[in-house]
Design goal:
The protein contains 6 helices and 7 strands; from the N terminus they run αβαββββαααββα. It is an alpha+beta fold. It has one domain.
Length: 167
Amino acid sequence: MRLTWSDLLIEGISPADFQRWLLPWSSVVRGRVAPAFMSKFGTWFLRRPEGHVEMLDVFTGKVSRVANTYEGFVAEVNDRSWQEVYLLSELVFRLHQEGKVAGPGECYALAPHPALGGPNPLAGEAVDTRFVLVMDIGVWQHLCAQSIFGPNASPAEPHAPSDPAGM
């Protein structure tokens, strides 16, 4: 069995979904952003008008620059070791072997969330597939933000405009 991009990535995110799914993170994602894509675990890869790409880690709530240019980012994404670290490709492969496959509008969720004592796979911690669920993307985004920032973490209005159309 081979994984495809659609097994590892959530692409073609509509403007409405982008706004809705990013809303719980408006306290940490500020300024104009557009989606490059999302990992199947809900981690965002966001393009900035200045040209660089940032990652919103839904396990820690931290935003960090992962590439200085979009072209450099694409080159990294095509590297297998990058996919293992950031897209958790080995874990996705094991999930597929067990019949856990996230479909359209779904992603993988960890129970418990790393902020609540579960393992953080982006920090290299091992994950038992028994504790991985398939969940609605919007629900997972809200659960992640609430696990990290508390139950009132989902604002009614975003703090900064986003550009889902691609800047």
